[in-house]
Design a protein that fits this description.
The complex is a heterotetramer of chains A (185), B (618), C (173) and D (296).
Chain B lengths: L2 H21 L1 H21 L6 E4 L8 E4 L2 H24 L6 H20 L3 H19 L5 H31 L4 H7 L5 H19 L8 H7 L2 H26 L2 H5 L2 E2 L2 E2 H21 L4 H22 L2 H31 L17 H15 L5 H15 L3 H26 L15 H19 L2 H14 L6 E2 L2 E2 L6 E2 H21 L4 E2 L25 H7 L6 H23 L4 H22 L3
Antiparallel strand pairs in B: 1-2, 3-4, 5-6, 6-7
Helix pairs in contact in B: 1-2, 1-4, 2-3, 2-4, 3-4, 3-10, 3-14, 3-18, 4-5, 4-10, 5-6, 6-8, 6-9, 8-10, 9-10, 9-13, 10-13, 10-14, 12-13, 12-17, 13-14, 13-16, 13-17, 14-15, 14-16, 14-18, 14-19, 15-17, 15-18, 16-17, 16-18
Chain C lengths: L1 H11 L3 E5 L4 E6 L4 H10 L4 E10 L4 E9 L15 E9 L4 E3 L9 H11 L2 E3 L24 H8 L6 H7 L1
Parallel strand pairs in C: 2-5, 6-7
Antiparallel strand pairs in C: 1-2, 3-4, 4-5
Chain D lengths: L1 H29 L9 H10 L4 E2 L2 H20 L13 H8 L2 H12 L3 H32 L4 H11 L9 H15 L10 H4 L9 H26 L6 H21 L5 H28 L1
The chains are: A alpha/beta (185), B mainly alpha (618), C alpha/beta (173), D mainly alpha (296).
Chain lengths: 185, 618, 173, 296
């Protein structure tokens, strides 16, 4: 927690800004969302790290995907992810987004979330506890420090592949592609 | 180049326009624009002249006097400028409607008769032109048939009542003073008994108040404005209502005289103070009704009544800044109200007749110039700093507060906030929000419609930033009434109790805006996204159902709509019902077949003979 | 009282077996074409609430078994006291190859989503159902997913595992 | 002159952001949470300014910049301590008028965002403004008639020798009315209907991303500063040196935050009913008292 080291603020304010003001999208997928309220209220206050839930995806830069991702929810996740402003970070929460978890052979849930949207951090556990969220947040800090939390850059670079994966799943998508040529908006 | 030629040429030219319409439409259009331009040019030419012409008519002591002074010139300028712009606007607006020649004839007739009223020096010619204006307005209001005829009927009945009141006033003035020339009438009304002045005051106030849509006589205006064709409703609320104010000014300050009007008391009532309260009430009540309207033109019509309240308040207040504010607001109201009606006309022209606020939306991208016009008009009517509305309202507020009338000032300020809410609803429901599917391929408003809007916007901004120009003329008008002139500079009013410095505010606002715009541009460039790419909690944006404009202020509507019923309107309708049932009962007597009439004559004769025999009166 | 109900049903309908397991459950097995008659009869008797329509896939006997569960609203119960409120479980078997049955929507309007779901997940089509459009699934399936012969493991291998990871694909570019 | 201008802007921004940070810290502490550092709003702004943002067209940008310009302009008219830059052009009347510039700007920009949440947010914002404007106008008029001047620095000078206007008896009624409507003007909890994150996804700022949100946050900071500074100048006799002035503002703001943390949120009808009933009547009575006193 190097928040109050002034030298770092002066050297790279952008990185420090992103580290200590992660606004999370209030998006409930699957069973993990029940872990978010305790983590933002009195007992495990997330606001002391600067993490607060905000109302719309436009205002957010952290996207918690909490729990299994069914085919219907994946559409909403992709749309919300594309509406967020760059630089944005996603954290897969629980074992279901990692490799399908206990729905490993279900016909209706996707198995590997990072085939469809880039994911920066994973939290293992079949519904990890709120402390695990803070582990993920601190882990995300180190990633941001080392410029490794580049999910949005990968999305922009390989948008063609992400888009083709999504179309493989749904056939024709209702919303136009986010980036026309490779990398340009 | 005296006034007789102007009026004569203008009248014949408008007939010529009608006839040329039979030959070819473009010739008629060209002629109509030429006539109105000619009128405007001649008025501007008469800038500093003030002279009178006596024309002898057949009757010895009824000369037709045409005169011009700064007040007349000020009104003539408003009328001719708004007239030219509305004629230019309606070239395109009327193109595919029927009876277009008739429309242009009536439009020019209204313009010319208004000029006639302004130029007329004696009450007789004043009344003649007043009548020409009334019935030509009636014909134009009921131009597009259907509900317009009922609106026109309501207008013509109320304006006839008004003309009757004015006629009796003129006649009683003639019998009392033997002359009809305004200049001679000027001083001597103050010699008569207070009862007579009250009688004349009530007559003229009702007469001009009806045309002025003051609170008790306002109910003809909303239907008339919303049913009339848009360019004409721009003219109607831009200049025609001001003729009523011109009449009030002539009566208060010229015939009644300044000193008599200030403390005009009749027994316990102070008429001037009562008039201020009527003005204040006319500001608040219609503005809150306008807030809840769902038809664009009806909303603007109710605002015309509200803004007239400011003018009445300003004029009736009697101090120099108050009267200056009132007269300046006449000029401003003509500018921004005309602009707003023209923008609604352009929208109506493009969406062929749709002006319901609940079904429009998102036209900002399709009609940007119309939107800019509507925005500047809205800022003007709200009285945003840097627009002309701000200066005139500031003058009115300053006098109200400095002269210690806080409740009047409160009513006026409350009216401003009501205007903000309803004008934002007007802008939001038509131009902002999602663009419905069926308006996807709307084109921009044609140039002949955009040009008048640009001219009006220019007038609003220049008079807002440099109010010295119009204030100089208004100062001359005030001194002609005998009030102390304001000490003004090119950019505002200098006075010890609180100066107004518009250029100061202009530089502050422009500077702040520029700096913040620079800072805004400094940061990473924002990317433009489509209208459908909107936050909808992850779901797809439903086409055509993603627009919240239906009854925009619903919570307020539920709260105040019961107590905003228009009691005056209901009173008039009840009055109309009573008269109709009365007439029906008379029909029993005169039921049309002659047998009854002969019987009545015989009965009457027998009665006479009987009386003669019994009491032998002769 | 549910015995009187049972006797009336037996008298009215032929090929029908009724047995009452616990005191508040009456299981009726009936033929496919008797369903409408039984349901409307029960509805007239006060069983106005169709709690559930579900389906069981007996793959060995090549049969689908449709189960209709009816229960009375407590206040409209004519003579049953609270304790003896009986639920009727109506079962019927239909052929697995051409799964056809008439829709009960005009007796119980709330059967619409249940029947849509069974149509989508089992492939039974209900004649007379106004809207058999997809309800839950995003993709189209040759074998409806809830059937026993739908092999989920193989489906996942065919659909989800085919979609390549981004890093491997990008590396191979 | 330019230095004084820059200084007021910086002081206003710093105090505004400090107040926002303080409010988040106090809310957290009242809810038994540890809460973010005091400079959290600053960190948020730094992050937001470095984010890429998305716009819905020219009017979307113009409205936001207009609202921030309106707030900045208003700052110049409100005296901070004893110096007030735009002293001779318009006084309290122009302040009343410039107060409508900022809401009109945000209304235009979020109207262009074509999102129903934003439209509902603006209709609530304008209704709230209409609701609290009725008592506010009455109070300002009482002050103008009582002190018989329309320039705000004149009022301060009179308060210097006659004591705070809150303590002057005839102005007591309107003072209480002003305190009752202060939460509404500040937009804090009992009246936080405009930016309701749960109901209408944070109202007008639903489509703001990146630097738009930063500008909206700065405008919110200025707005808080202006409202409290106006109250302190008019009723607590705006102090001679800025330090003393800042202390008074702090007291008022802390009281406001205490109310903010414990109150649920009004529905818009309840808010309008409340604002038009008690504070409006009090303000009207205050005006009547002053007018009668004036007549005698």
């Amino acid at each position: 927690m190097d928040r109050n080291q002034i030298s770092k603020w002066i050297k790279s304010p952008v990185k420090m800004g992103h580290k200590y003001s992660l606004h999370a999208v209030y998006f409930c997928t699957g069973c993990g969302i029940i872990e978010i309220p305790p983590s933002i209220t009195a007992r495990w206050d997330a606001e002391r790290f600067g993490v607060i839930p905000v109302a719309t995806s436009r205002q957010a830069n952290l996207f918690l995907i909490t729990g299994y991702v069914s085919l219907k929810t994946l559409k909403a996740i992709i749309r919300t992810y594309e509406q967020m402003a760059e630089p944005k970070f996603t954290v897969g929460f629980g074992s279901c987004p990692i490799n399908g978890g206990m729905y490993w052979d279900s016909y209706n849930t996707i198995k590997h979330l990072d085939k469809y949207i880039p994911v920066d951090g994973w939290i293992a556990g079949c519904m990890p506890r709120p402390e695990a969220i803070f582990v993920a947040v601190t882990h995300l800090w180190t990633l941001i420090d080392r410029e490794m939390a580049d999910g949005y850059k990968r999305y922009r670079k390989n948008y063609k592949f992400y888009r083709s994966n999504q179309e493989k799943l749904y056939g024709k998508l209702e919303w136009p592609p986010l980036f026309q040529k490779d990398g340009a908006k | 180049m005296n006034l007789v030629y102007i009026l004569a040429v203008a009248f014949t030219a408008s007939l010529l326009v009608y006839l040329s319409g039979k030959i070819s439409k473009t010739l008629r259009n060209f002629l109509a624009v030429l006539v109105s331009l000619g009128m405007a040019a001649s008025v501007i030419y008469l800038y500093n002249h003030s002279f009178a012409i006596h024309l002898s008519t057949g009757f010895p002591d009824f000369p037709l006097v045409l005169r011009i002074n700064t007040l007349a010139w000020f009104f003539a300028l408003i009328i001719s400028v708004v007239g030219v712009l509305t004629v230019i606007f309606s070239l395109q607006y009327i193109k595919n409607k029927k009876r277009t020649d008739f429309y242009f004839l009536m439009l020019l007739l209204v313009n010319v008769s208004m000029l006639g009223i302004i130029f007329s020096g004696d009450l007789l010619s004043f009344y003649i032109f007043w009548e020409i204006m009334s019935w030509s307005t009636f014909l134009l209001i009921s131009y597009n048939r259907g509900a317009a005829i009922a609106a026109g009927m309501k207008y013509i009945i109320m304006s006839l009542a008004g003309s009757a009141a004015i006629l009796t006033g003129i006649l009683s003035l003639y019998t009392c003073f033997g002359t009809l020339i305004i200049a001679e009438l000027a001083g001597n009304l103050s010699l008569t008994s207070p009862a007579y002045t009250l009688f004349i005051f009530l007559l003229f106030f009702t007469g001009f108040g009806i045309k002025n849509a003051v609170w008790p006589f306002h109910s003809w205006l909303p239907p008339a404005h919303s049913e009339a064709p848009s360019p004409f409703s721009a003219l109607l609320s831009g200049t025609l209502i001001k003729i009523g104010t011109y009449g009030l000014i002539i009566f208060f300050y010229v015939i009644l005289g300044m000193k008599k009007f200030i403390g005009l008391k009749y027994g316990f009532f102070n008429l001037q103070y009562m008039l201020c309260w009527i003005g204040a009430f006319t500001i608040v009540f219609p503005t809150f009704i306008a807030l809840l309207q769902n038809d664009a033109k009806r909303l603007l019509a109710w605002h015309s009544i509200g803004q007239m309240g400011y003018i009445i308040l300003g004029i009736a207040f009697g101090t120099s800044t108050g009267v200056a504010g009132g007269i300046f607001h006449i000029f401003n109201h003509a500018a921004f109200k005309g602009l707003l009606f023209l923008s609604v006309g352009a929208v109506e022209y493009r969406t062929n007749g749709v002006r319901d606020l609940n079904s429009l939306g998102g036209l900002l991208k399709k009609m940007p110039v119309t939107f800019c016009g509507a925005l500047i008009g809205a800022c003007g009517i709200i009285g945003m700093p840097l627009t002309n509305g701000f200066v005139s309202k500031w003058l009115i507020y300053k006098t109200l507060i400095v002269e210690k009338y806080p409740f009047l000032a409160f009513a006026a300020l409350l009216g401003t906030w009501g205007t903000i809410l309803s004008l934002y609803k007007f802008l939001h429901n038509i131009f902002l929000g999602q663009l419905p599917e069926k308006y996807k391929n709307i084109k921009k408003a044609p140039f002949t419609m955009q040009f008048p809007m640009l001219v009006f916007s220019l007038i609003i901004i220049t008079c807002g930033v440099l109010p010295g120009i119009p204030l100089k003329i208004i100062n001359r008008i005030i001194t002609s009434f005998g009030l102390k002139a304001l000490d003004i500079s090119i950019w505002g009013v200098i006075s010890e109790t609180g100066a107004l410095n518009t250029v100061n505010i202009f530089f502050a606002l422009a500077g702040a805006f520029f700096i913040i715009w620079l800072i805004f541009k400094l940061w990473p460039k924002e990317t433009k996204i489509a209208q459908a790419d909107n936050y909808a909690a992850g779901a797809a944006v439903p086409r055509d159902k993603y627009n919240y404009t239906v009854n925009f202020y619903n919570p307020l509507y539920r709260m105040i709509s019961p107590c905003l019923r228009d009691f005056i309107d209901e009173f008039y309708i009840r009055l109309a019902k009573i008269t109709r049932s009365l007439c029906n009962s008379i029909k029993l007597v005169y039921n049309g077949d002659t047998g009854y009439y002969i019987m009545y004559i015989i009965l009457f004769m027998t009665a006479l003979i009987f009386i003669q025999i019994k009491w032998s009166i002769w | 009282m549910n015995h009187s109900m049972k006797n009336q049903l037996l008298s009215l309908f032929t090929e029908i077996q009724i047995d009452i397991k616990k005191d508040n459950e009456m299981i009726i097995n009936a033929a496919k074409n008797a369903i409408i008659g039984i349901l409307s009869f029960c509805k007239s008797k006060g069983y106005e609430h169709l709690a559930l329509v579900s389906c069981v896939d007996w793959i060995e006997q090549k049969k689908f078994e449709l189960v209709y569960i009816l229960s009375p609203y407590p206040e409209q119960e004519p003579e049953f006291s609270k304790k003896e409120k009986t639920n009727i479980i109506l079962k019927t078997r239909i052929d697995r190859e051409q799964p056809e049955i008439v829709s009960v929507i005009n007796i119980f309007k709330n059967a619409e989503p249940y029947e849509r779901e069974i149509h989508e997940l089992f492939g039974i089509n209900f004649n007379g159902h106004p809207r058999l459009t997809p309800l839950f699934l995003e993709r189209t399936y040759k074998i409806p997913p809830f059937r026993k012969n739908f092999d989920t493991r193989e489906y996942v291998k065919k659909v989800f595992d085919e979609i390549p990871f981004i890093d491997k694909k990008e590396a191979s570019k | 002159m330019a230095l004084k201008l820059l200084l007021t802007l910086i002081i206003a921004l710093v105090t505004g952001l400090f107040f926002l940070g303080l409010s988040r810290k106090m809310i957290a502490r009242i809810q038994w949470r540890y809460g973010p550092p005091l400079i959290q709003p600053l960190i948020d702004i730094i992050k937001l300014l470095s984010q890429k943002s998305m716009t819905h067209g020219g009017l979307f940008n113009f409205g936001l910049v207009l609202s921030l310009a309106g707030s900045v302009i208003l700052l110049l008219f409100i005296p901070l301590g004893e110096w007030c830059i735009m002293n001779k052009s318009g006084g309290l009347l122009v302040i009343i008028y410039l107060m409508l510039l900022a809401p009109f700007g945000t209304a235009l920009s979020s109207g262009a965002a074509a999102n129903p949440n934003a439209s509902i947010g603006i209709s609530r914002k304008l209704l709230m403004a209409l609701a609290y404007e009725v008592p506010l106008l009455l109070i300002l008029l009482t002050l103008m008639t009582y002190y018989n001047t329309i320039s705000i620095s004149g009022i301060i000078v009179k308060q210097q020798n006659a004591g705070w206007s809150l303590t002057i008896l005839p102005l007591l009624l309107s003072g209480i009315a002003y305190i009752l409507i202060l939460p509404a003007v500040l937009g804090i909890r009992p009246f936080a209907i405009v930016k309701a994150p749960q109901e209408i996804a944070s109202g007008p700022s639903v489509e703001y991303s990146g630097k738009f949100l930063a500008f909206a946050e700065i405008q919110h900071a200025f707005q808080t500063y202006i409202t409290i500074a106006l109250f302190v100048n008019l009723f607590l006799g705006g102090a001679s040196n800025p330090g003393y002035f800042f202390l008074k503002m702090l007291v008022v703001f802390v009281a406001g935050i205490l109310i903010h943390t414990v109150f649920p949120r009004f529905r818009i009808e309840q808010a309008i009913k409340y604002l038009w009933r008690w504070p409006a009547l009090l303000a009207l009575a205050g005006l009547a008292v002053v007018v009668i006193l004036d007549k005698i």
